[in-house]
Design goal:
Blueprint (H helix, E strand, L loop, with lengths): L2 H13 L7 E6 L4 H12 L3 E6 L3 H8 L9 E5 L2 E5 L3 H10 L5 E4 L18 E5 L5 E6 L1
Parallel strand pairs: 1-2, 4-5
Antiparallel strand pairs: 1-3, 3-4, 5-6, 6-7
Length: 142
Amino acid sequence: MKRPLAILLTTLAFAAGAAELPQVEIYKSPYCGCCAEWAKHMADNGFRVKSIDVEDVPAARARLGMPERYGSCHTARIGNYVVEGHVPAEDIKRLLKEQPKAVGLAAPGMPAGSPGMESARKQPYDVLLVDRKGKARVFAKH
């Protein structure tokens, strides 16, 4: 599907209040439990989830176009965007609604207290919007 048509369909779905969100393809290590927890977080927030076990997450990240410096333990594709790491579902819903020109969102590292990394000791973290030149700006603070 061409990008303008995809944007139109996504916009119409949100405008109509449609409950159906795009599928999330998560590229993750078969040995990572926090990735499975993030997948559950996404499913609990209305996304259809497809987990794809890979032995080389950095290679999947590179193939999808997310710069390595924003890396985490898993990389996901959602529509025309890449989501790196433990990004909250609400930030992704906002991304899909606003449709900025970008590679996608990243929560670099594995911040304690982020979805899938729940902990009694929460660490403040930023979700970054990564542009097509590899530069980033803060999209949300948590």
